[in-house]
Amino acid sequence: MLPIERQKQILNWLNEEGTLTITEISNRLNVSEMTVYRDIKQLMEANKINKTSRGISLASIANVSSNTCTYCLKELNNRHPVQIITHDQKVEQLCCPHCGLLRYRDIEKNVSQIICRDFLQNTTISAKLAYFLMDSDFNLNCCQPQVLTFDTLKYAEQFQKGFGGVIFQFNEAVEEILKRMSGDRGCGCHK
């Protein structure tokens, strides 16, 4: 199992259970405790987890500034933010659809709603009904690969004619961003 896969699994367990010890993680993943320490070191540096007296737990979203993306910790870009609302009514602010899609995948079982903005109209829309454009020649200097959202396929196709790119629906966009992030393309996020 790759380090990024182990880290995702650790985050999933923490999401479900709250707190884990290094020994528990080591036994579950069948790796050494040193490997677990290397994995959690990266998660701590990304402010995704905290060390506690009982082991590790997810970092409190309250510790993140309200002007900061909860995924990549960049300052929020008001042009195309994403909000995730969990079943327990917590609201996470994300700087862009790129981070929104990645964070959604991390916590999708706990997501009640995911909301974004139409890039052209600046109207609030459900991300699950939106169209996502990747690889356009329009650069917003945010996380890479850049993702733009549109309320309708018509708007996405019109923008695509001028700036290129590939259009995806929500589930396709989630899978595509994950595929790209696990490959060798990398991104402009903290990872």
Automatic annotation (TrEMBL):
Lineage of the organism: Bacteria, Bacillati, Bacillota, Bacilli, Bacillales
Gene3D superfamilies: Winged helix-like DNA-binding domain superfamily/Winged helix DNA-binding domain
Alphabetical UniProt keywords: Transcription, Transcription regulation
Presence of keyword Glycoprotein: no
Residues of the HTH deoR-type domain: 3-58
UniProt cross-references to Pfam families, sorted A to Z: HTH_DeoR (PF08220)
The protein's name: DeoR family transcriptional regulator
Organism: Neobacillus pocheonensis
SUPFAM superfamilies named in the record: NosL/MerB-like, Winged helix' DNA-binding domain
